[in-house]
């Protein structure tokens, strides 16, 4: 069965370190997304990609970067981790933008100390 | 801008009780509306959707009707089960140039007790 996976599921890092969160999907979807989930804010879009070599900033992109070298993967990098980036991160993919159906991964809980 | 407002939680109900979770929206244009559900320790899953006014989305005993006149999309279920305990998110999406954006409400946590 097709799926979307994230790794690691839990990560503790120190302020100032570079961290990369992995996202891998086997749906063969062109569209991929990264969200962060914080209490009281719901889900907020960090970056998104419409396909290979395409990346775009979302509403909370500062301090984050992504790259898309193939269809299956969209890694999220925190260039210099800050305590404000402690959150749960969700990757998602979709076949079509119109329609709003996203397939979400299980999430990565990141703690920055 | 676009926004979604959900009722504050948490909501605690006894098994077989009636559930309503209110959702209202503000949008430029004519959005599609969604309810997503997040079970403990998992990612979000699409529960139901409606793409135009007066449409009713339904799934797993849950229903929501797209009410353009009141800009609402309230989630209902006639008889909740313990297995319905989860966080529920209302969301909207626009067509056209803004369609990459899925705007979520803050979520409503539902706990169902036996």
Task: Produce a short descriptive summary.
The complex is a heterodimer of chains A (113) and B (114). Chain A is mainly β and 113 residues long.
List the helices and strands and how they pair.
The complex is a heterodimer of chains A (113) and B (114).
Chain A (H helix, E strand, L loop, with lengths): L3 E4 L2 E4 L5 E7 L5 E8 L3 E10 L2 E4 L6 E3 L9 E3 L8 E8 L8 E2 L3 E5 L1
Parallel strand pairs in A: 2-11
Antiparallel strand pairs in A: 1-3, 3-8, 4-5, 4-9, 5-6, 7-8, 9-10, 9-11
Chain B lengths: L2 E4 L4 E4 L4 E3 L1 E4 L5 E7 L5 E7 L5 E4 L2 E4 L9 E3 L8 E8 L8 E3 L3 E6 L1
Parallel strand pairs in B: 2-12
Antiparallel strand pairs in B: 1-4, 3-9, 5-6, 5-10, 7-8, 8-9, 10-11, 10-12
Note down, in words, how this protein is organized.
The complex is a heterodimer of chains A (113) and B (114). Chain A is an all-beta fold and 113 residues long. Chain A has strands at 4-7, 10-13, 19-25, 31-38, 42-51, 54-57, 64-66, 76-78, 87-94, 103-104, 108-112. Chain A is globular and about 35 Å long. The mean pLDDT of chain A is 93. By secondary structure, chain B is an all-beta fold. Chain B has no helices and 12 strands. In chain B, strand 7 (56-59) and strand 8 (62-65) form a beta hairpin. The radius of gyration of chain B is 14 Å and the shape is globular. The model of chain B has no long low-confidence stretch (mean pLDDT 92). The interface between A and B is medium-sized, with 24 and 24 residues.
Entry keywords:
heterodimer; A: 113 residues; 0% helix; 51% strand; B: 114 residues; 4-stranded antiparallel beta sheet; globular
Poorly predicted parts of chain A: none
- What is the overall silhouette of chain A? globular
Whole-number mean pLDDT of chain B? 92
The general outline of chain B is globular
User: Level of helix content of chain B?
Assistant: under 10%
How many H/I helices of chain A? 0
Strand elements of chain A, count: 11
Most extensive protein-chain contact, per-chain counts = A-B, 24 and 24 residues
User: What is the arithmetic mean of pLDDT of chain A?
Assistant: 93
Oligomer: heterodimer
SSE topology string of chain B: EEEEEEEEEEEE
Q: N-to-C terminal Cα separation of chain A, in Å?
A: 37 Å
Main beta-sheet strand count, sense and barrel state of chain B: 6 strands, mixed
Radius of gyration of chain A, rounded?
Answer: 13 Å
Structural class of chain A: mainly beta
Main sheet of chain A?
7 strands, mixed
Distance between the termini of chain B: 41 Å
Strand content of chain B: over 45%
Low-confidence stretches of chain B: none
């Amino acid at each position: 069965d097709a799926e979307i996976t994230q790794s690691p599921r839990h990560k503790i890092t120190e302020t100032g370190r570079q961290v990369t969160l992995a996202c891998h999907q086997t749906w063969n979807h062109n569209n991929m997304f990264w969200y962060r989930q914080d209490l009281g804010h719901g889900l907020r879009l960090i970056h998104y990609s419409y396909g290979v070599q395409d990346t775009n900033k979302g509403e909370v992109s500062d301090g984050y970067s992504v790259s898309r070298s193939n269809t299956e993967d969209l890694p999220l990098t925190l260039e210099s981790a800050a305590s404000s980036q402690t959150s749960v991160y969700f990757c998602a993919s979709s076949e079509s933008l119109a329609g709003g159906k996203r397939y979400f991964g299980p999430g990565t809980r990141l703690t920055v100390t | 801008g676009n926004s979604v407002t959900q009722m504050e939680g948490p909501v605690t109900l006894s098994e077989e009780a009636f559930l309503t979770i209110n959702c209202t929206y503000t949008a430029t244009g004519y959005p599609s509306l969604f309810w997503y559900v997040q079970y403990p320790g998992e990612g979000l899953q699409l529960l139901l959707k409606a793409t135009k006014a007066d449409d009713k989305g339904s799934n797993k005993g849950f229903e929501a009707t797209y009410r353009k006149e009141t800009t609402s999309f309230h989630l209902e279920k006639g008889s909740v089960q313990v297995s319905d305990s989860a966080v529920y998110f209302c969301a909207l999406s626009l067509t056209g140039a803004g369609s990459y954006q899925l705007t979520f409400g803050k979520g409503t946590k539902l706990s169902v007790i036996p």
